[in-house]
Structure formats: C-alpha cells, structure tokens
Amino acid sequence: MGENNQVVKNKFNLKRITHSKGFSSLTSALIAILLGLLFGLIVMIFAKPDSAWAGFKFIVLGGFKRIGDVFYFATPILMTGLSVGFAYKIGLFNIGASGQYTMGMFFALYVGFMFDLPGNSHWIVAVLAGMLGGMLWGFIPGFFKAFLNVNEVITSIMFNYIGMYLVDMWVQGSSVMYVATKTRTNYLPTDVQIPSLGIKGSNVNYGIVLAIAIGIILYIVLEKTTFGYELKATGYNKFASEYAGMKGKRNTIITMLIAGGLAGLGGAFAILAPSGIAGSSMTYEPINIIAPAGFNGIAVALLGNSHPIGTIFSSIFISHIQRGGTLASLVGFKPEIIDVVISVIIYFSAFAAIVSTAFGGIIKKFVGKKKIDDNSKHNINEDSLVEKSDNNIKGAE
Amino acid sequence: MENYIIEMLNITKKFPGIIANDNITLKLKKGEIHALLGENGAGKSTLMSVLFGLYQAEEGEIRKNGQVVKINNPNDANELGIGMVHQHFKLVEIFTVLENIILGVEPNTAGFLKKKEAREKVINLSEKYGLRVDPDELIEDITVGMQQRVEILKMLYRDNEILIFDEPTAVLTPQEIKEILQIMRDFAEEGKSILFITHKLNEIMEVADRCTVLRKGKCMGTVNINETSKEELSRMMVGRNITFSVHKDEVKTGDVTLSVKNLTVASKTHKNNAVKNVSFDVRGGEILCIAGIDGNGQTEFVNALTGLDKVSSGAIKLCGEDITKSSIRRRSILGMSHIPEDRHKYGLVLDYKLGQNLVLQRYWQKDFQKSGFIKFDAVREYAEKLIDEFDIRSSQGPDTIARSMSGGNQQKAIVAREIDKEPELLVAVQPTRGLDVGAIEYVHKQLVARRDAGKAVLLVSLELDEVMDVSDRILVMYEGEIVGELDPKIATVEELGLYMSGAKRDVVKEINDGGK
C-alpha cells in the first residue's frame, strides 16, 4: 500500500524530517488516512463480517486496477479542492464551489451546443467559458464581502442554490440542450469533448493534466510571486496588509474570482470529458441537486492542508478510495455501505489537524526521548523543542 | 536562614539556537516586591513562564517554602498560589468582567452557576483594594487599564499569594501607573509576594525592595534597591553606561513637510468627533510631539493621517501634495513612514517570517521583485542587514516566524523597517512601547538622526519622559483638540500634565496660523 510505504520511508529519515514544517502536515494526513481506513474496516466488519476483508481490500487496492478512472474522477474534485484551498489561504471559506462548478458546467455546455467552432478551438473555448462562468459565481460573493461586509459563507451557500436552480431552469428551457424524455442534456458534439489520454476502458483525458498543471501554477503564484505574498498577507492579517498599502477589498474580490474560476473549470472538465462509448457524451441531469463535487472539494482541500500540491495528492487519494469502493460491490456490499465507509475515511482525514497534535506529538516525543537516552542528559532535547516552537508559543524573552 | 517563599535555583531553559535562561537563581521573600529587570530577550518572560508552568526547565529546581515542587502547567502554579498578569491580557472579549474572573473556577451547584456568590466576592475584593471595575461590563467595552484590573482580580479571586506582573505598566497612562504601583505596595504590605517584570527603572526605584537583573539569559545578580541607583541598574542590565537624556544638536528647520489644516475625524464609538478642527505644520528637521492621555483622539488622528481611516473634513498636505484622500500606498511612496500603535494588529503579519515582514511595504519595489516574482535572495540579504543594524534578536534570523519573537524584538523589527525606508515624514506612535532602556536609547537616537538629516518626525507618545526628552515642540491633544503648544526646553512636566488633563488650555489656533 502506497501510504504504508511512505510511512516506512518517513521513519527512516525521521530525525531529519521531523525538523521540517511540512512533516507535521504530511504525517498527520497519513495517520488520519490510516485511522480512517481502520475505522472503515470496522464498519465493514459490522455490516458484513464474512466478506469484510475482501471488500476492504477492494477499497484500498481496487483503485490501482483502474488508474485511468482514478485520475478521471479526481479531475473535478481536484479543481474544487484547489478552489476551496486557495480561498482558504487568503482567509475566505469558499463553500460555494458547488454553485461555481455548476455554473462553469453550464457555460461549457452552452458553448458546446450553441457555438460552432473549428477543431480543437471548440473544446478550448468551452473550457474557458466554464472558467468564466465559475468566476462570475465567485465574483458576486467576493464583491458582497469586500464592499458590503457580508459573510462569504452565507452568500456562497445561497449562490449554490441560485446557481443550481438557474442552471436547471436554463437547461430545461432549451430544446437544443435538453432531452425531456430522458431528463438529461443532449449528447455533446465530439469536437467539444476534451481529447482522451487514450487509456483503454477509461475516460481519463487532458483535463487531469491541465488540472495538475493549474495546481502547480497556483503553488508558484502563492509562494513565489508578489501577488501571492500580498494575497496571503491579506489572509493572515487584513489590518496589517491594509497598513502596508495593499488593497484588501480588491484582493478579496480577485481571490473569489480565481476560486470561482477554478471550480468552474472543474465543472467544465467534468462535462466535457470524452465518453468511452462512441457517439455519446457526458450529460447533466437537472434534478435540483447541488453538485456534490463542491463539498468533496472541501474534504480534498482539508486533507491536502489547503496546499495546492497537497491538494493534487489528496484528490487522487479520495478518487482512488471511491473507485475501489465501487468494486467492493463485487463481494456483496451495498453501495450505501461503501459510501458510509468512504465518508468515514474522508471524515477522519479531515481531522488531520487534530490528529497532528495528538499523534504527531507522540511520534516526535518518542524520537526526542530516544535522543536523550542516546546522548548525555546535558544535551538539548531538540525535537520536543521544535514541537514547542511549532505550537507558536512565544519564544525567548 | 531567611524566609523565602519561592526559590528558583539554577534554572536553565534552552530554545533552538538560543539559551533563554542560563543557570539563573531567583529567590523571592515573603511580602516583598521583587523586580526582575532585563533587556528585551534577556529571558525574563521565559523565567516567569517556567515558574508559571508554561515551560519546563531542563535543569534546576523550584522550591516553595523550602519544599521542592514540580510545576507542569498553569493549574499546578495556581494550586501553589502563583498567579500571573500577562503582558498581553488573556481575557475573553465577549464575556463580562465577572465571567472572566470566575473562568475556570466557577462556583456552582450541580453544574448551575452561582453567580451571586461570585459577584459578592468580586465586589468585596474590588472595594478592598480599590480596583474599580463594573462586574457586568463586557471586556471589549472597557479600557486597557480596567482590563488589567480584571486580570489582577482574577489572581485575587483565586487567593493567590505570589503575584507575577509581566510589564504591567507598558500599556497604562501615567495616572494608571501610579494607581497600579500603589496597589502593588498594598499587596506587599498585606504579605503577598510580588514579582515585577519591567524595564522601567523609575518604577523599580519607586516600589521594589530588591531587584534581580538578567542579561542575555544570564543572571547578573540581585541587589537591594536602597543600596543601588538607576545608573548602576542600567549598567548591570546592558553592560554599559546608558545616557538617559537624549543628545540633540541645534538643527535649522527646513520647509514644511506635513501640513494639517482644520482636520476633523468622526469617532467610531460615539457621536462626537474624535478629532476636532486640528491644524499644525511639521517642518523638516524637527521632532513634533503630540502628547496627551490615551484616548483623547490621538489614535483617530494618526489613522486619518496615515490613510487607515477617512477624514470628515479638512486637508492634509505631505511635501506639497494634497494627500487627504490618497491611498496608503501613495502616502508611502511620497515618503510617509508609520510606526503603528498596535504592532500585532497593524505592524506585523504574525504568521509571516521576519524577513517577509521586513519588506511588508517594499515587496513590490524593483529591489525585491522581478516581473512579479519575489527575489528571495534580495529579501534575505536585506533582512539580514536590518537584523544586524537594528540588533533584532530572534532564534532563526530572517526565517523566524514573527509570532514567536519577543514583543520588544517585534517592535524593533517594525522600527527598523520604517526608519530604513528613509522617510520624509516619520509618524511614530509609541515607538518605544515595550522596549528596554538600551533599545529605547537606540530608537530615540534614530528619531533624532532622522531630524538631523533634515527630515520631519511626528511623535505621538504617552510617556512624559519621552515627550520632554526627544521632541523639539510639543502639541497637547485633549478631547480631540490641540489645547496647547509647549517648548520642552522651557515647559515643566507639571505644566504639561495640566494641559494633558484639560485643566489648562490656550488658544493655539493663532500660533498655527502664524506659522503658516
């Protein structure tokens, strides 16, 4: 199992790695995952003792047999995860990723059906339109927050509903887009579908490549540019950033624009994915349900510690577990039980921060103790000190 | 053998890259006021945190009444009767005074609060010691001085007999300082033992019985106050002689740098204007000080001047340009620097590294970025330069998270950043708050150096000594108005005090108009 290997590797270099800051978030995420898996196993044993182990093996390992699908399903939640995580870094909680995702999907659909563009430009324009739709739906809560000081959580929750109902209404009102007899959208033309990566039996496409690239770009923007410096400063302390002459209101709006655009791209990537069956495509069913991708994005971002690179891995992990979960039905597990187990795993994963202080501390203490035993009593217990300073306790005065 | 209530013997406490306490011994007698003196970063707070159970010492032991005790957390300390008033208060803002006092030791029957009993005890205590508070007011609505009284009442409510005051006077007005010192004396007379952390020598000379001096984590010894002098204490603390008066050469004042005309600023808390029709000029080569008791409109005035808040009416000109409505960035580019009053709220991004904080207003300049990408090497180099020049002490240099630095060093970082911008106008609000004498001397020298370079300095201060020593001209602000202009060479502290308390006022308007 991938996670196990990483743990072993970490133990190996523990002394050096415990000093790094990234270590605590990585260990906590890994431990959270392990705990989640363990708890999931327990749930499965209660549900169906006979085939619990077989089902569990499917959940953990099944994804490896369907790598293509893992990446395919990771794409939209990676984008919503990046959206939530990015906003969070700037101190905003973007719970409206679902609405932005749905809006993005609609804009992409609209370009797909209503525009006739040559060759590759069609899907590219559709993807960009999706981004635009998401940005629009992110802009409004951002504007309200910046100029009217309305909490972005409230507005973006409301915009989840407004977006979803609007899209459902628009889709159902268009005879080009909607097939009333099948209560779903029509098949999109082939040229608007994102080119497949060509893995057999899977819909995986260039969407995931773009999504990962976007994640890396986000990382660079946040960590290496003046723009990112400014945004993070605004997130950490809006008073100090204002004092330093940064434009807090503008930054809030830009942040929500970008977050919305990311989620909108997620929607576009999802709906424009190629279908394995010739002549068909992905479809959208206007059945008045808020897209779960937005909420999965919150879990993905939490597990990835809101870090763009961490989010890439956490989205792939969650997708991996979900793919494995569908396979567990082969040994007789009902889909609902699988959903419960997956939820438990994600739920535990979201506890990463708490787990970090509890277990991370224990591990560091253990290493620290060993060091004391090794060396004479007069040496400084560096590891536990690192832990102290990690906890932001005021330093030496 | 003497009767020691607390003995801290050979305490050693290390942090990565720094030995905060190196073999320190401190003995507290029953019923005495024992001062703990040292520069910023000398290890005073660390030592007290060890006593209060926030840190564990690697070596050494703590004894109470001769018995060795182990203090693992603040609860242990509390059980031993040790209470502490922290420099930054630890109060729940949205709770009332009473709720804060009983927090953690709530009297109850079967889970139901017995507030009435608690209220009586609090009222009794507050009357007995003259600690005036209203038990039902919310913490967020009361002044800093009152919040401190709440912290003291918290200790008394818990029947603590060993009271630690961590720089209690740093945030208080002169009147409040007098009160708190008297309260400490009353406590000592009653047999309570007091540890008083400070770097204000005057206060030590006034109330303390003995004083232990720390320097760079080492104990420089304990002295009896009646056998020592301010000069000796400061020499022990910094290892060299400190000049208490600020040396200033005559400088010819230049052109008007800042011109404020009929400035009025609305108040956020009440209907009246916080700043009323204020007019004055600051010229290059002078230090103009705005003196006044806290809460008389200085904060609002500075916020309006620096662009943090809007102006109701009036005009501000900086170097000839009308900046009344300019952005903060524009003011900064024109040459305004601002050392803010609240260093945690405005001065620093606490979760950023020290290096990142030192370029907080300059990250966008050519020196530090290239086509939008931060030049990390340049930032680091610049940070190291400032750290070196301004003696900013931290455990990991430019990579230290600002939050983990001591208050004094945080302040030094801000001062370094603002002065190194080489501003035309330096607005310094309480620039030496929380600094030790060595650092104060340094900051004062820097302010004077700006003046000597022909630049303007606007100093806003509550410290009378600072006002009298550093400034070339004093304006006194009372209830949002300028009520007097004084020449520090002629005026006395008493006279200044009369203006500050509103007992005396001139018609200053003519003076200002004359200057224009």
TrEMBL record, chain A:
It is found in: Cell membrane. GO terms for molecular function: transmembrane transporter activity. It is a multi-pass membrane protein. The keyword Transmembrane applies. GO terms for cellular component: plasma membrane. The chain crosses the membrane at residues 23-47, 70-88, 95-115, 121-140, 204-222, 253-273, 340-363. Keywords: Cell membrane, Membrane, Transmembrane, Transmembrane helix. PANTHER family: ABC TRANSPORTER, PERMEASE PROTEIN, GUANOSINE ABC TRANSPORTER PERMEASE PROTEIN NUPP. This is ABC transporter permease. The lineage of its organism: Bacteria, Bacillati, Bacillota, Tissierellia, Tissierellales.
